[in-house]
Each structure stands twice: as C-alpha cells, then as structure tokens.
User: Which sequence fits this backbone?
C-alpha cells in the first residue's frame, strides 16, 4: 500500500493503519532498532513504541516522507532504551560513533549560539553538497548505524574505502561547519 494511503488510514483513525505500516516497514524498523540494541525483544518493543507514537501523532502530523518519519521515531526509542539499559556503561558501538562525530559537530553546551536547528540546517546543506556515494555511506553509518563491514558489503566496496570515505566526509563536514560559523 502507498504511504499516502496508509497516512489516510491514520487520519481516518482506522486501526488497519498499523497493520499496513507493519507490512510495509516492520522489517526495516526492526533491523534499525536491532542495529542499535542488539536484542530482539527490545527491538520488537521499540518497533511497537514507534507504532504507538505514530498513532498518537498522525493526525495532526502528515509526514512527507513516511519511512523517514518512522525511522526517526524508531531511532529515538531505540537510543532511549539503550541509554536506560546501559546507564553509565555505554555500549562501545554507540560511543565510538559519537566520538567520531564529536570531531566535526560541536558540543551544544559549550557553544550556546550553535542551536540544534542551525546545526541541522547546516548538516542538510552539507549533505546536499557532497556526492551521492559519500552521502549514502555517511547516512548508512551515522543514521542507520550500519557497521563498516555492512556498508562495504552492501555497496560492494572494500572496508578501507568505506573508512577513508567516512574520514574524508567528516573532515569536509568539520570544514563546512567552520565556514558556516559553527565552531568545532
């Protein structure tokens, strides 16, 4: 079923909307949650929480990109569950991803003038300015939390090429943010 029709079901408050959402995107959402949580039961809960929040927020929201909307909610719940489960002892994968990004995105507590919206606008503009291959690799790594090996396999390139592309893209991002007046 098309996204627009699924969203119309939400607006009609038809419970079939959740079934259709699950049929269209359930596996993708579960995979996204599982990459973050590495626990099937927690991932299933996260997907259920995503469906519940979607039911609560549509209407009034009418997302233009339905899967992106669902993925955003799913990541939010998965990262929240991961924080709750691991408290002070963070998972190494998430910490390493965060450390990689700290090199090019400032800590908002230190830079009060660089608001989240400014950084978001700059990130979007930056991603539009780079090649599609770099953008896809960057998003697979930092949005979908794919491992280097998964990205290399998905796009049939070497792991070293993925690492180099990510390194160069992070450096370009740091330069871009600096030019935009966002101190790194």
Assistant:
């Amino acid at each position: 079923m098309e996204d627009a029709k699924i969203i119309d079901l939400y607006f009609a408050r038809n419970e079939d909307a959740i079934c259709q959402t699950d049929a269209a995107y359930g596996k993708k959402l579960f995979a996204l949650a599982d990459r973050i949580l590495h626990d099937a039961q927690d991932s299933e809960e996260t997907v259920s929480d995503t469906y519940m929040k979607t039911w609560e927020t549509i209407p009034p929201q009418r997302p233009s990109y339905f899967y992106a909307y669902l993925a955003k909610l799913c990541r939010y719940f998965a990262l929240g569950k991961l924080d709750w489960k691991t408290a002070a002892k963070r998972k190494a994968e998430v910490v390493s991803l965060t450390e990689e990004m700290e090199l090019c995105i400032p800590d908002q507590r230190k830079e009060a003038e660089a608001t989240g919206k400014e950084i978001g606008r700059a990130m979007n503009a930056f991603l539009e300015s780079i090649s599609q291959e770099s953008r896809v690799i960057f998003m697979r790594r930092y949005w979908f939390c794919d491992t280097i090996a998964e990205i290399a396999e998905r796009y049939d390139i070497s792991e070293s090429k993925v690492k180099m592309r990510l390194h160069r893209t992070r450096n370009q991002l740091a330069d871009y943010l600096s030019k935009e007046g966002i101190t790194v």
